[in-house]
Amino acid sequence: MPHSQDITPIVLTIAGSDSGGGAGIQADIKAISATGSYACSVITAITSQNTLGVSAIHPIPLEHIKSQLDAVFTDLNVVAVKVGMLADSDIIKVVAAKIRQYQPKYLVVDPVMVATSGDLLLQQSAISTLKEELLPLADLITPNLPEGEALIGCEAPQNEDQMGAMIESLRALGAKAVLLKGGHLECDDNSNDLLIEQENSELLSAKRVATENTHGTGCTLSSAIASYLAQGNRLHKAVYLGKQYISQAIAHADQLNVGNGHGPVHHFFCGHTNVR
């Protein structure tokens, strides 16, 4: 009789806690669960946060981050890992060392630097550490346009042609693939993301939804992709399914009435475990 862990797609999220529940660990767990996988978590920082913004960040002590990682990896059969907010260089180094030690099958890194509200979530000095230590280990990184700008030192793109001009510099970061998210190009009718693999690139398009409730979109998308990878989908299919899922979660966001600022997306819009 196989142990239940052998047949359960388990996804670990390594990220910060959002006390408002719309982003971070809380969004990750909701997205992983809603897309049909089992979520476990390692908390790297505690934020005081709501739909209006981030008022405080408290990093978790390094030894406790290590002990959380060891506890999860030595017991649970983690197939995919999603990494979000890491706060500072020392935390990035610890997480990268544990990823190298335990070698999960898939690693998705959402290089969280700026919240939807515009608050800075990653110390400037930590960006070079992220690029050196963690991004080369990733199967996929999922920067938005401001994060792409910070990672490669370019001006933020204003159109799809300028997104395309970033391809080679993003490939040079060392990850197997990059999903450059174009949601910040608000003049477009569509929300277009650029999936950049080593040999080719492809534009993934979805109709833009007019809503203020977009808190946690990046966390949600990267977690959904990790979930679909854990279920055995190839990268392209996992990204496609993740894009479908986040598009629907945004489209249904106004069904929720949460907070007075940028509300969350609707993780459980469909009432069952999958969008397929």
Automatic annotation (TrEMBL):
<dbReference type="Pfam" id="PF08543">
    <property type="entry name" value="Phos_pyr_kin"/>
</dbReference>
<dbReference type="GO" id="GO:0008902">
    <property type="term" value="F:hydroxymethylpyrimidine kinase activity"/>
</dbReference>
<keyword id="KW-0808">Transferase</keyword>
<feature type="domain" description="Pyridoxamine kinase/Phosphomethylpyrimidine kinase">
    <location>
        <begin position="18"/>
        <end position="266"/>
    </location>
</feature>
<keyword id="KW-0418">Kinase</keyword>
<dbReference type="GO" id="GO:0009228">
    <property type="term" value="P:thiamine biosynthetic process"/>
</dbReference>
<dbReference type="InterPro" id="IPR013749">
    <property type="entry name" value="PM/HMP-P_kinase-1"/>
</dbReference>
<protein>
    <recommendedName>
        <fullName>hydroxymethylpyrimidine kinase</fullName>
        <ecNumber>2.7.1.49</ecNumber>
    </recommendedName>
</protein>
<keyword id="KW-0067">ATP-binding</keyword>
<dbReference type="GO" id="GO:0009229">
    <property type="term" value="P:thiamine diphosphate biosynthetic process"/>
</dbReference>
<dbReference type="InterPro" id="IPR004399">
    <property type="entry name" value="HMP/HMP-P_kinase_dom"/>
</dbReference>
<comment type="pathway">
    <text>Cofactor biosynthesis; thiamine diphosphate biosynthesis.</text>
</comment>
<dbReference type="GO" id="GO:0005829">
    <property type="term" value="C:cytosol"/>
</dbReference>
<dbReference type="GO" id="GO:0005524">
    <property type="term" value="F:ATP binding"/>
</dbReference>
<keyword id="KW-0547">Nucleotide-binding</keyword>
<dbReference type="GO" id="GO:0008972">
    <property type="term" value="F:phosphomethylpyrimidine kinase activity"/>
</dbReference>
<dbReference type="InterPro" id="IPR029056">
    <property type="entry name" value="Ribokinase-like"/>
</dbReference>
